[in-house]
Amino acid sequence: MRPFLLSSFAVIAFSFASAARADTQPVTIPEKVSQNILKRHPSAYDLQASHETHFGQQLLEVGYKDESGQTNQELFTSSGHLLTNELLIDDFHEIYPQVIAALNREFAQHQIKKAELIGNPNGVGEEYEIYLHAAGTDWKVSVTGDGEIVDKQPLTP
């Protein structure tokens, strides 16, 4: 029984290490997605991608700069179709009060560093992607417009 427990623990530890390493590796942007962006913004540059989950879907977030140098972030489905975009929130007072209340409950003392709004094109609702600092750690937190925290991840330096 003891060897089984030790080997099980080793497999679990290896899985967590592999998952953490996978998050830090660059994500390849599928040709269909890059063509979609370049069709609308022929001079787009500095394309970078990461995987995210919003509205219960695994999505590909692609950030890029357009011809004017403005940064854009768009979310694509696994089939490569544009789903929606992320809007940067400049004034944190525009974040719904129930979202702020959820953050206050989860992170007693925090400072919001960046906030993005993601509208659901397939129905009612929106989600916020909030980057904050609390208790010496930087966090990425996904919160529904109703104030439900659906994901939180500590960010590594």
TrEMBL record:
Protein name according to UniProt: Beta-lactamase-inhibitor-like PepSY-like domain-containing protein
Record flagged with keyword Signal: yes
Native species: Methylomonas methanica (strain DSM 25384 / MC09)
Keyword Signal: yes
Secretion signal, residue range per the UniProt entry: 1-22
Keywords, alphabetical: Signal
